[in-house]
Write the structure tokens for this entry.
Amino acid sequence: EGADFGKCPIKSNVVGGGTRSQDWWPCALNLAVLRQNADASNPLGGDFDYATAFAQLDVEELRKDLTALQTDSQTWWPADYGNYGGLFIRMAWHSAGTYRQIDGRGGAGMGQQRFSQLNSWADNTSLDKARRLLWPIKQKYGSSISWADLMEFAGHVAIENMGLPLYGFAFGRVDTWQADEGIYWGSEDAMYGDADSNRDRYNGSTDITGRSALLEKPLGATNMGLIYVDPEGPSGQPNPAASALDIRTTFGRMGMNDEETVALIGGGHTFGKTHGAVASTYIGPEPNAAGIELQGLGWHNSFKSGVAEYARTSGIEVIWTRTPTNWSNDFFTSLFKNNFTLVESPGGATQWEALGANASHPDPFVAGSFRKPTMLTSDLALLHDTSYYNISETFLNTPAYFAETFSRTWFKLLHRDMGPLSRYLGPYVPKGKPLLWQDPLPTVSYATIDNNDVQQLKGAILALLGPATPGLNVSSLITTAWGAASSFRISDKRGGANGGRIALQPQRSFKANNPERLDVVLGALQKVQKSFNAKQKKKQVSLADLIVLGGVAAVEKAARDARSPVSVPFTPGRVDTTQDLTDVETFAYLAPEADGFRNYGHGNARARTEELLVDKASLLSLNIPEMTVLVGGMRALGANFDGSTTGILTDRPGRLTNDFFVNLLNISTVWTPVNGTAEELFQGSDRVTGAPKYTATRVDLILGSHPELRAVSEVYGSGNAQQKFVNDFVKAWAKVADLDRYDIR
Ligand code: HEB
């Protein structure tokens, strides 16, 4: 049943059917990720502004509607205990829980649960029902509430309605309209449910007590098709101690420490129940494989009514607490007070039951009927790890502390990928001090510099060029500004130039930033900053603004020197944050393994250099022409991270010319791999004389080798393209510089 990898009985001969380039040459560089989320695919239109639409929403009315729905059991999918709270919390958690901090991808921010493959993962079984229950509410408010926000808010309201006031909630998640093709979910061709669903991610290891640290980066989940860990234990083996190891790695990749992890599991599993009344043989295919008549619903259950007391989701049949519709710390009471024995659920899954205990846990549909306490293997894991055990004991004994920790962590879970606080919308945004994971920026009382100041400061920066400041030049100003701005990643909207964090650890030490070079530039810019600020009363310029402005000044100078004068857009207002307000540990994930724009680094066993370029471009939300023009422009500016000449296909570096494209496309150069560089470095020689002309990396050469990139390069390398090249470069440059400026959008 269900997922049938790579097979389809109908071999379509229309719309994308048939054997395609990707089938013939599966190793060719795939640019699809740079085409996604195009304005043309957005039914709301490219200029739709969610914040404006959201401002029309009556949040309190939405809240009332959700509250009413929570206990308004529908016959087509009856609510356990007459309350959809548990189901909605699970939906919100599964939406947010895909976040992994290594690449910042996943998470609730884009409403991705609606799309395949997430909509059809075994772990998301029955969440199709949860979203369908919400449809009348979504329909009522239309585009003034995104699905992404609605799914999270439904879980949030459910918890508050069940008795736990939460830390806060922010709206502001903007819907996307297709699955995120940039996210790597693993390489297996088997889904959870098959023994092979984690074959590739542990480097071949099957040692469930030793392999968790081997989990392939940046993955968070233990299996293809799971959000986190196998509830029945690693590879289905009911071994709670080994499950604890998986949990630590998985929740760690999600950005959660031990205390946060225990709080989330215990808090989440206070509510609701699991569903395993019937065997999997009664269950139809997941939504993406189900018949068209099912209208996007999946997992049709053919046993009797197929719902309520016959429902099957995970196949496990567990009720954790005596209070499935109320907040309590009864999860920990049950965990510590009972002795659990391994049993099989009616649906055939492994779970644990307190065989000697009283039946005290309420039946979801028969009032006055009770069941014995039950647990998942992954719940018992909390008893089989010293740190988890101690934290669980604390939560058992200090319910208020448990409640506070859960509330704070739930907030983190739902908002971890939202980026700057200027994106937070709505009446429930916490008013207090920002939390460290929110990458705080100080609020400042000084006035921002104006246009005259900008002109003056650009002059002051350029005046330092030359022998007065060895090492300060167009190239180093560009690499510094780029290093600051391009640390942004659209996945979780962290990084960027604002805050001036490139002057702080860990960014200051990123190899790609070439710390020695960076120090020279920062020193010069700080000099400019000091002398400017000393003369001001109310105004100040931040180092963050100056770093970006240094790039602007350099680009404008380089354009002038190429006789294509241009003005680079610049919006001041960035502030400088402090080391104390910088999460050094998690910012380390922003260090690029390779950055083709600065010709830094190269591929690894699983990703070629040019693929890392596309990955970086996708995290900068660039499209194909933007990526291309930026690489070519950076080369013309001589902006390699190390100041080297590799790929600088021009004899006049530092001028913003289209020389890179002209020379790349020139047939008179022949390229050969340089021995011993594993095809990372290439020599370009004169085709006739054999005289060496240039060296170049894979990133340089892919722009002439890949057919689509070559097509774009031809546009920029044309005889009359100089001005277009400059204009497009400047536009793309300014876009990158402002990627994190949600404060001015
Ligand atoms: Fe959970 C449910 C697993 C965590 C919340 N979970 C559930 C289930 C399972 C699980 C299997 C069942 C499903 C059905 O229906 O059947 N989890 C799990 C695991 C983990 C978890 C393995 C890791 C360790 N959760 C969690 C968290 C949260 C949660 C963190 C939040 C916070 N869950 C939940 C809920 C529920 C569940 C609420 C219920 C649902 C209903 O009621 O429907």
Summary: The chain has a mean pLDDT of 97.
